[in-house]
Amino acid sequence: MKKIGIFYGTTSGITAGIVDEIEFYLKGKEYQVYDVAEGVEEMKNLENLILVSPTYGVGELQRDWEKTFEEFKGIDFTGKVVGIVGVGNQLAFGESYVGAMRKLYDVVSRKGATIVGFTSTEGYRYEETESVIDDKFIGLALDESNQDNETPDRIKAWVEEIMPKFN
Ligand SMILES: Cc1cc2nc3c(=O)[nH]c(=O)nc-3n(C[C@H](O)[C@H](O)[C@H](O)COP(=O)(O)O)c2cc1C
User: Distance, CA 49 to ligand 1 centroid (Å)?
Assistant: First the structure.
């Protein structure tokens, strides 16, 4: 398998912890972690990508993702396999739960990526989200504020599912 690039943004640090957990389940695989505060240039050179953003505002991207969004939109994702991870709070922000995933999804799908790792909405208690298509989350939805006990199993299952689909 070719190298995996994990790109994340975080404002209050929770998503950095999520990335640590993802790394745990990638043991033995070749991967590199990139904070999008440093830009997304390296995305162009990688064929396997995991994109991770918490949601801010009402269903918006985290601020470092916002800052680099123009550059991100300019990337050609043809031939790349992409998994998306959203971090949010389904009780406090239940009408825009993990909305940031949709912002990432819309770009990479329009620009030719193969998107992997859609997941079941069972076990979540949000009201609304733009990050569900055909009854599935368009990536892995995590909630450290209300369901942190579920996170390790959710990540493990998701990583196992997407690994065989990477280039
Ligand atoms: C001002 C503000 C707005 C937020 N908006 C949303 C939202 O629309 N949807 C959601 O699921 N979570 C929302 N959240 C929750 C954050 O995504 C959540 O706390 C996340 O774990 C923060 O990740 P970070 O510590 O990596 O920045 C919001 C949090 C704040 C402080």
Answer: 23
